[in-house]
Amino acid sequence: MQLVFGHDAAVAAFAAEKLGISINPPFVAIGVADETGLKGAAVYANWTGWNVEIMFYGPGCLTRPVIRALFWGYPFNDLNVGRLTAATRRSNKVTRGLLPRLGFTEEACLSRFYGPRKGDDAIIYRMTREQAERWK
Question: Which domains, from first to last, does the chain contain?
Answer without folding.
Answer: 2-135 (3.40.630.30)
